[in-house]
Structure formats: C-alpha cells, structure tokens
Design goal:
This protein has helices at 13-16, 59-82, 90-104, 116-124, 165-170, and strands at 9-12, 30-38, 41-54, 129-140, 151-154, 158-164. The chain is 34% helix and 29% strand. It is of the alpha/beta class and 171 residues long. Helix 3 (90-104) packs antiparallel against helix 4.
C-alpha cells in the first residue's frame, strides 16, 4: 500500500469471503479497508491481496493461479458492490460490507470527522465512494540473485508482483 494510506481493518477472505459471496478456495487472501476523505467525499478503499510463497520451479504456474484468484475476487466484488446490474441486491452487499466493518475493524475515535459506526452507515446507505484495487504478490524463496530486476510489477490497478528472494530481504 502507498505510505500515505493506513488500513483500519484487515479481513482474511478465507474466513469472510463467503459472507461477500465467494466460494472457499477461489478467493484472494486479504481485504484491507481504508477510510478517508477523497476530495471532500467520504471514501472507502478496498485493497484485495492474494499471495503465494513458492519455489522458482513452480513460479509461473503459481503466479497464474494467484492472478486468477485475484481476478475472481475482484470481479465478484465489482459485480456485487459497484456494478449496479442488480439494483435490488447492491444494498444487501453494501450492508454486509458495513457489518464486516463493524464486527472486524478496530474501533477508532474519528477518521475524517466520523467514527466507525458513522462510516459503516455511510457504506450501508451507499453514501461513501468505494474504490477497489488488487495485487497478486508471488514470493519466490529459492531464486538465485540475477542482474535483472528482482521485482516484477505487472498492471497498475489490478497488478501482480513477483518478488525474488533477494528483493524479499530488502523489504
């Protein structure tokens, strides 16, 4: 995440993915929740993260699997929270997200002038702007140092990072 962004909650999607309409095993690992005022508008940023820790021999296949899990998770969230294809169902999904925030985000005094309950009500009522980003991070534990770039980033909003062992030490 960018240095200026501080998540208020981390949800393990293996535990909560079904609550958001995803089947177990087909969902990314984490959902980070960030609250802030974006250009004066209450904004909830959702960061989806799928990660793998693999050997070099399995890197290509595991990177493809990780990318697919991220894409399925992002597509499901887009369909339920953003798309509006089913305007009758969207409020239900927004309420579920708000309930997850209330139940699993550490309470705080105020962010952008609102407490957690006020943020949750904004989400449930469709009064907060939602943003979605995703990252597939593949950590390669046995890669030999090379002269080429140790970190490979693919894609701006829904990206994939393949991080070789040497780069992991620098993290």
């Amino acid at each position: 995440l960018p240095a200026s962004i501080r998540p208020v909650g981390w949800l393990l999607l293996d535990d909560f993915g079904n609550w958001l309409g995803h089947r177990e095993g087909e969902v990314a690992d984490l959902l980070a929740v960030v609250l802030h005022d974006g250009d004066g508008e209450p904004t909830v940023e959702l960061f989806v993260v799928e990660s793998k820790f693999v050997g070099e021999a399995a890197c290509s296949e595991e990177a493809r699997k990780s990318r697919r899990q991220l894409e399925r998770t992002m597509d499901g969230l887009i369909h339920r929270l953003f798309n509006g294809e089913n305007p009758l169902a969207r409020p239900i999904w927004l309420r579920r997200l708000a309930d997850l925030m209330l139940g699993h985000v550490e309470p705080f005094d105020h962010i952008a002038g609102r407490n957690l309950a006020e943020w949750a009500e904004l989400v449930a009522g469709g009064g907060a702007r939602l943003c979605l980003r995703g990252l597939s991070a593949v950590f390669v534990y046995d890669a030999a140092p090379t002269a080429e770039n140790d970190v490979q980033i693919i894609g701006p909003v829904q990206g994939q990072a393949i991080i070789r062992r040497v780069a992991t030490v620098r993290l």
